[in-house]
Specification:
With 619 residues, the protein is α+β, with helices and mostly antiparallel strands. Helices cover 35% and strands 25% of the residues.
Length: 619
């Protein structure tokens, strides 16, 4: 014989059901408690004289109601929160529409939950929940999918004897319960109660149905906006903020969203721990400022993490991420800089995909745009995956700043004027105050601006801002004499690198006491680089450094390549187009020489800031 659970006795089931009904009645009773404000029943037509002795004509009443309907409809169409929905509904209250209170219920699989109310209050717990089997008009709307109109207390009492007394306590005279429909299914119920008897003619019902549709759309928009906000908040918190100290480097970051409502858009930054004490620094910008851009950004961040963890170099990380973005969305692209850093040695391996160049700040406050050879933005042409790796070395006290274009172009600036603003904000202050520099950079963009002697806040309705700053630290306690230094390489097929090298050298010498020597240094460096590119098939490496105190400093420029053939000085003919490089070195520089290396050679020259006249000339 099989044992079978017969269930509780009939008396117990009856008692349990009675307890459930009592609990439901308490919930509804709590919902229907009157608010603290005084409620008075408006006189029905004919019960009291019209105020000021003027009777309102039916046509005027209808016109007045239509105006209020239009205003409420416009407010509902623009509502982005539940509170704004109730504010729009409250504006409907008038003698022509004597609304006493309203409530919105959300729907789950087995119950109705109170979303919010106007004109009602609850005592104790604010949670109001009832099952769909409750003898309540809103539950019937959910069960049948049709509105419930109750023009009188008597009809409410006859149709819903269990709950009508609780509803009648509030003093309302008529009720309407309408389904809220979204994407073909009921997502909620709207309750509206009236102080006066309402016969719910066809015009009134049509008005209520129209309002219910507007409320459904407003709530759907509200839920979508809340979901977007929750997603963007999660993405924002995952990026973190503040300084991180590594052995030999300090990194700080900032993120400022646009004024579009989301807490994060398509801009991002990341700091990824790699094996052997190395770290990856990533900054990027996905096209667009909407939720889709934020979603793509989150997926790209994950992809970059995965490729970096697999041990790929910067060029491979970018090329794989580019193909990944194309598989996600062929219509969007992203810019990015990926840096693999060795904090102990100060070396950086950098790859760039269409992103703005970084800025290098030297210990004495000199700032310069550091030109980084790069490839196309991610996702633009996935088959073109050439992302050259640039090798740099940060000196003690030097700071590299990476940002998205929002930091440069926000406020009506272009890349030139925006760069000047960044330089002016980044130059002042001690090197040790990395956090202060980051705050000053952000404040220069989002802080108050002065126009005609008056301060005003700048609008945040343009682009997001992501900022990364890394500083090469030093363990030396005594003051270190500032040394400026740049290092750049030029490949054989990158003629534009020559112009970039000239630009960086001029930036290095921005405060050189003798402007003529700046032109001389650029000329000599160009000759040496050109010799490598024209007469060998090797990559040219330029290193320039400034040492000493202002006014008596020394510039040293070295150009290296891997070729074995050493240059020889010769006297060019009158019509010769080459052979003048070493002659110019001999005439214009103070010192120069050729140094053989284990692989290749280095040609170097020096210029002194306090030199009188031109080096190499007889007086």
């Amino acid at each position: 014989m099989n044992d079978r659970d017969e269930g509780p006795p009939a008396d117990d089931r009856t008692a349990g059901r009675a307890a459930e009904q009592a609990a439901e009645l308490r919930q509804i009773d709590a919902l229907n408690e009157t608010g603290p404000h005084e409620r008075t029943r408006r006189p029905a037509p004919g019960e009291d004289g019209e105020r000021d002795g003027a009777a309102r004509a039916p046509t005027d009443a209808g016109r007045h109601r239509d105006v209020r309907m239009l205003e409420a409809g416009r407010a509902l169409a623009e509502a982005t929160s539940v509170d704004e929905v109730f504010m729009a509904l409250a504006s409907l209250t008038s003698p022509e529409f004597p609304m006493d209170g309203t409530a919105l219920f959300g729907v789950t699989e087995r119950s109705l939950n109170l979303i919010g109310r106007y004109g009602y209050r609850t005592s104790g717990s604010r949670t109001v929940r009832m099952t769909i089997t409750t003898d309540y008009p809103a539950a019937e709307v959910l069960r049948t999918g049709r509105p419930v109109y109750l023009p009188t207390v008597e009809e409410y009492r006859d149709r819903f004897p269990t709950t009508w007394r609780l509803a009648a306590r509030k003093g309302s005279r008529s009720w309407a319960f309408l389904p809220l429909v979204s994407t073909g299914r009921i997502t909620g119920v709207w309750l509206v109660a009236f102080l006066d008897d309402v016969d719910f003619d066809s015009d009134t019902r049509s008005t209520l149905v129209t309002l219910a549709r507007l409320i459904s759309r407003a709530l759907e928009r509200t839920h979508t906006g809340e979901a977007e906000l929750a997603l963007s908040r999660g993405l924002r918190s995952s990026m973190g903020r503040g300084a991180s100290v590594y052995r030999g480097m300090t990194v700080t970051s900032r993120y400022v969203p646009t004024g579009g409502g989301l807490v994060v858009g398509g801009d991002w930054y990341d700091i990824i721990d790699l094996p052997s004490g190395r770290l990856a620094l990533v900054i990027g910008d996905v096209q667009g400022h909407d939720l889709h851009a934020a979603s793509l950004m989150a997926q790209l961040r994950t992809a970059v993490h995965a490729y970096a963890a697999e041990g790929h170099g910067p060029d491979a990380v970018l090329s794989r991420t580019s193909r990944f973005l194309t598989s996600l969305d062929g219509d969007r692209f992203a810019t990015c800089i990926y840096i693999e850093a060795d904090p102990a040695a100060g070396t950086l391996h950098v790859a760039r995909a269409g992103h703005p160049h970084p800025v290098l700040r030297m210990p004495d406050g000199t700032c310069m745009i550091k030109h980084i050879r790069g490839g196309l933005p991610l996702g633009l042409m996935p088959d073109e995956d050439d992302y050259p790796v640039n090798v740099l070395e940060l000196q003690a006290g030097e700071i590299m700043m990476l940002c998205t274009d929002g930091l440069i172009e926000t406020g009506g600036h272009d890349m030139y004027t925006g760069w000047n603003r960044v330089r002016d904000a980044l130059s002042p202050g001690p090197t040790s105050d990395l956090e202060g520099m980051a705050d000053r950079l952000i404040q220069s963009v989002v802080g108050p601006v002065t126009e005609n002697g008056e301060e005003r806040l700048s609008p945040r309705n343009e682009d997001d801002i992501a900022l990364l700053m890394l500083r090469r630290d030093t363990g030396v306690q005594r003051p270190v004499r500032p040394v400026r230094r740049i290092l750049t390489t030029i490949e054989q097929d990158e003629a534009e690198g020559l112009a970039e090298a000239r630009s960086e050298l001029r930036a290095l010498l921005h405060d050189w006491a003798q402007p003529d020597q700046v032109d001389t240094a650029v000329l000599l460096a160009s000759e040496l680089l050109g010799n490598v590119l024209v007469h060998t098939d090797q990559t040219a490496a330029l290193m320039a450094s400034i040492s000493g105190e202002p006014g008596c400093r020394t510039l040293r420029v070295e150009v290296s390549d891997s070729g074995d053939e050493l240059p020889h000085q010769r006297t060019p003919g009158e019509m010769a187009s080459s052979g003048r490089g070493l002659v110019l070195l001999d005439i214009l520089s103070e010192q120069w020489s050729v140094r053989p290396e284990s692989e290749g050679k280095t040609v170097w020259f020096e210029l002194s800031e306090d030199a009188d006249g031109v080096a190499g000339q007889d007086v």
